[in-house]
Design a protein that fits this description.
There is one protein chain. This protein is an all-alpha fold and about 190 residues long. It has one domain: Multidrug efflux transporter AcrB transmembrane domain (Multidrug efflux transporter AcrB transmembrane fold). The chain is about 80% helix and about 0% strand. It contains 7 helices and no strands. The radius of gyration is 20 Å and the shape is elongated. The termini are far apart.
């Protein structure tokens, strides 16, 4: 039995992706390690990549979209969105610690400081994908990115601070001293 038509074309496209995929993973990990300069932080960034999946399946089911080649391309693109949000949060945590905040307050303040920019960027991306939802060809990819970005962003803002606290053993501290409050007011 031979395959033909759409199935054959989909298999060809998937094979083409599978050839390049390992090299792209290595390149992505290299860029992340240069950005965060820590293997622990790199693993945290990679652990947040699948968070968007929680929004993909319900969105595809809700809008009766197939999980075809374009949706898979959307999944690959989607992996970068929670990772970008994680890089933003980890960068802010590091900055807060360099400014003198203890680890607990650095995590809490980073989440507060970066929530609005992260959510607004995700909202802009979601709104930008809406016109593609009307396309027969790109619709499934657009719905994949919309559902994954929306849910992945919210989960990242909850998951990363918790993961960071568990990973580095961050515990709540006493009420900040006057010096730490001054740092919070400056930021």
């Amino acid at each position: 039995i031979e395959t033909g038509g759409n199935i054959e074309e989909s298999e060809k496209a998937n094979k083409a992706l599978s050839v390049v995929f390992p090299a792209m993973i290595v390149l992505m990990l290299t860029v992340i390690i240069f950005q965060v300069r820590s293997f622990s932080a790199m693993f945290m960034v990679v652990l947040t990549a699948p968070l968007g999946l929680a929004g993909v399946v319900p969105t595809l089911l809700l809008f009766h979209q197939p999980l075809g080649f374009n949706a898979i391309l959307g999944l690959i693109a989607l992996a970068g969105i929670p990772m970008r949000n994680t890089l933003i949060l980890i960068g802010q945590i590091t900055t807060n610690q360099e400014e003198g905040l203890d680890s607990y307050h650095a995590v809490v303040e980073a989440t507060i400081q970066r929530s609005r920019p992260v959510v607004l960027t995700a909202l802009a991306a979601v709104l930008a994908f809406i016109p593609l939802t009307f396309s027969v060809f790109w619709g499934s990819m657009a719905f994949t990115l919309i559902g994954g970005t929306a849910v992945g962003t919210v989960l990242t803002l909850v998951f990363l601070p918790a993961l960071y606290a568990i990973w580095f053993g961050v515990r709540p501290t006493a009420v900040p001293s006057d010096e730490e409050e001054a740092v919070l007011v400056r930021a």
